[in-house]
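Case study 2.
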Amino acid sequence: MPLRISRPELFPDDTNPLPASGSSEQAALLDDELEIGNEGYLERLQQLSDVTDNIYPELLGAIRNTVAQVMPGKRLRILDLCSGVGVVSLKMIEADLPIETLTLADLSPELLRRAQTIIGKRVGAGRTPPIDTISLDLLVEDLRERTPGGYDLVVTCNAFQHFPRERQAELFRQIHDILGPSGVFVFESHFKPIRPAWKQSLVDEYQAKLRRTGAPEQFVLDAADHINNFHNYVNLREGYEWLEAAQFGFYECVFRKDEIGIFTAVK
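Prediction:
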């Protein structure tokens, strides 16, 4: 007998209202980012979920494999979008990715300053490529107006789940437009898992892992508040739909485990 139930009723979509630009809620989100945004950020991520061990190796693999195919041997003009404290940029430099210029973009000038400091401290002046920074609010500002464009690679990680669906779709179009010929977009975000009471189950897993690793109880509670207030988990199919609508010539989900998904796309 066929299952007579609509998809949203079976596994309900995330309808979390996210902070608007300039709101007190956006300020609270930024406070969260500033509180955790330091050299210990990666270690705290690993406390949250075993899946985080996969994010950066898989992200780097997606970058290396796609760039090697579409622009072998080229030194890359890279935009690290929503860079935070620069973890992705640091990983790319440490992996000896051929970087001509690196631009970090984030809402917070303070996070951008911390990112430059951490990168310089970890890899040293001799290995650090030329770095520019751009402070911008991706909820309202247009990348085509705020960046010079012509990038070979745009990468973003652990950020877009903080944006409404409609804004994510628009940002995909803008990213397509600021890429140069055969430019590559590598995108990691959080997606809705298919399981009963899926969002609460994620919160429960995060909190259980934090308690097992001895995190302070307030940090455990804050993690749940952050997910409930600031995360919107979209469906994986929406990533495909947004890349298609943005007119990327190639796109694929190259990694999926639990809530984490990584897409690569070529202009």
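DSSP finds eleven helices and seven strands in the chain.
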